[in-house]
Amino acid sequence: MRDTGIKVWMKRMDYIKLKKLGLSDRFEQEAMLYDGLFLARVSEQHCDLYKVISEQGELPASVSGKLAYNASANTDFPVVGDWVMIDRTDGNAGNAVIHRVLRRKSVFERKAAGTSHTSQIVAANIDIIFICMSLNADFNLRRLERYLSIAWDSMATPVIVLTKADLCKDLDMRLAEISTVSVGTDVVVCSSMDESGYVDVTPYVTEGKTIAFIGSSGVGKSTLINRLMGQDVLATKGLRADDKGRHATTHRQLLLLPDGGIVIDTPGMRELHLGSGNLSRSFEDIEDLAAECKYKDCSHTTEPCCAVRTAIETGELAEERFESYQKLQKEAGYKGLNSRQLEQEKIKRMFGGMGEMKQAMKQAKDKNRR
């Protein structure tokens, strides 16, 4: 018993080195369940090859045959930001083998490209999502609504980061437009010509916090990360002739900032299809109006005493925003569902069903008792 206590103490001492990478007590306790394996965090992903950071530093890794065999979907495989259990911390003897992916506290997830209904996890275990959008001709309010819907659904906190303010001819007008969709989300304005925005984002980047940078190509994500790093560690590219961005980031990667904090850079995503989304949070204004309609099953088309239609007619709600809400509802498969059905749909997507959710909660409680 004494030897077991010493081993646990020594392992906790090693884990102190991982605190700067965002290690929390929750992940530390779960890692204790896997004797003979070592805790690490996924820092890069190149198809089926990974880089992970352990207490001994960064090393290449690949998933075990058992993990791959038991995976029922691509979301079961490790992604950047995941905490995983590996078989070694020394890369001199070959790639480390990832045997376990610890339970995620948050995921930024989107529908995979193409016609399939599969999902793709962009990043895991993030605290804050910087939704980066440039203030040039590529500015798109409807795309911002999509990002916000998925960001709120991820369980992380979104922050809207507006880049290239020096290219915007009417900043006040843009900010007024964004205020109609931001619904309480913080907004930070950056300029590529000076450090005004760079200073404003630093309060969010604190030691142990993980920030994912999301946005289209060419919006300035890499430039902003380079500013935070204090050096040019990421390639940057300018705009095309049509004022749209070129891809600078080609894969997801996790970077430890010199003054604390962790950032995850992601390739640009101009088209963002919803496999799910927290529309109640990102379209809270419309949900509140819908609650005032005379009929609970109001379709907001021709029914009398419809608060949504009244708000549109009086100019309180933009027709384009309501159309976007309906489109995203349909895209996410939420069209026509009430609040209880929406909650059941989310449980089904996360756990497979109510029974599976209760089983997962029971297993978590049993692990904590140990």
In short:
The chain is an alpha/beta fold and 370 residues long.
Task: Give a description of the structure.
By secondary structure, the protein is an alpha/beta fold. The chain has three domains: 2-103, Nucleic acid-binding proteins (OB fold (Dihydrolipoamide Acetyltransferase, E2P), Beta Barrel), CATH 2.40.50.140; 107-265, P-loop containing nucleotide triphosphate hydrolases (Rossmann fold), CATH 3.40.50; 279-359, Probable gtpase engc, domain 3 (Ribonucleotide Reductase Protein R1, domain 1), CATH 1.10.40.50. It has 13 helices and 13 strands. The protein is globular and about 70 Å long.
What is the secondary structure topology, with strand pairs?
Blueprint: H1 2-15, H2 25-31, E1 38-46, E2 49-54, E3 57-63, H3 65-70, E4 83-86, E5 96-101, E6 107-111, E7 119-124, E8 128-134, H4 141-153, E9 157-163, H5 171-182, E10 186-189, H6 196-201, E11 210-215, H7 221-229, E12 253-256, E13 262-265, H8 279-282, H9 284-290, H10 307-314, H11 319-332, H12 339-351, H13 354-369
